[in-house]
Amino acid sequence: MSKQITIIGGSGQMGRLFTSLWQDLGYIVHALGRSNWGDATQLLQKSAAVIVCVPIHITATTIEEIAPLLNPDTILADFTSIKVTPLLAMLSSHQGPVLGLHPMFGPTIASPHNQVVVSCQGRYPEQCQWLLDSIAQMDFTIKPMSAEKHDQAMNFIQGIEHFLTFSLGTFLYHKQEHPQELLEIASPIYLAKLLLMGRIFDQDPALYADIIMADKNRLQLIREFSQWLTKWVEKLEQYNKQEFIHEFQQASQWMGQFTAYAQRISDDFLTIDLE
User: Fold this and answer.
1) Architecture category of domain 4-145 in CATH
2) Distance of CA 73 to CAs 45, 47, 52, 210, 261, Å?
3) Would the pLDDT of 1 be above 70?
4) Domain ranges of the chain
5) pLDDT tens digits, residue range 52-85?
6) pTM given for the model
7) Has residue 274 got a pLDDT over 70?
C-alpha cells in the first residue's frame, strides 16, 4: 500500500505543488487546513509523513497542536524558510523522526530540474531517508545543511535581497518611474534585474512580509545593512573616490575566483534571446 503524506496548509500554492509531485510518484497525499480540521486525527494517525507548510508566524503553534496526534514513527517535517526555531519546536513536541526542509524556490516553477531543497537533519535521519529520496526522485537537488548555517545564509538571501527588491520597487512607484519604460533602454544585466524585481512583485505580498520579518536576527542584519548604506552615501557626498576604489578592490580580492565565475555564467544567460 502506498505511503500517505499529509500537508498542513496543503491548499496553498506550495502545498498544491508538492501534492501533485508526490501523487505523480504514487503517494496518497492529503491537504489539511482549517476547513477540514475535524479530520486531523484520522488523517495524521495514518500518515507516514506530515509536512507543516503554513505561514512562518504560526509554524511553531501549528507544530505544537498537531504533534500529539502523530504516531511515534511518523516523520514530522516543515517547509519553513527559517530552520532553527521550527526544528526546535518539532524536536520538543514530537519524539519520532524530525526533518527540516526548505524549498529554495517559489510554487510557480516550471520544472524541479536545477531547483534546490535544503535539508536540515533533526532526528532519526535513516527513518527520514525515504522522504528525501522521494524529493530527489522528483528531480530536485537536495542540499544538506545545518539549521544554523541555513538561517545565516537566508538572512542574506531572503532578508537583504528581498528587502532590496522591495525597496527598489516601492521607490520606483513613489518616484513614478515605471519599470516598463526603463526596459526600453536597459542593458541586458539591468534588464535581468528589472525582470527579477517584477517577478517578485507578481507574488503574494504577505508571503514576502513574513519572509523578511521572519527572524529578529534577519531584521538586525537589515538594520546593519541600512547603516552601511547611509555611511557610504555620506562618503559619496564627500566625493571620496579613492576610498570607494579601495573598498571595491578589497571586496573583489576577497571574492577571489567567484568574480570570474560570475562573469562567465552571466555572459551565458545574458545571450538568451528574450523576444
Assistant:
1) 3-Layer(aba) Sandwich (3.40)
2) 10, 10, 16, 31, 45
3) no
4) 4-145, 149-238
5) 999 888 999 999 999 999 999 999 999 998 999 9
6) 0.80
7) no
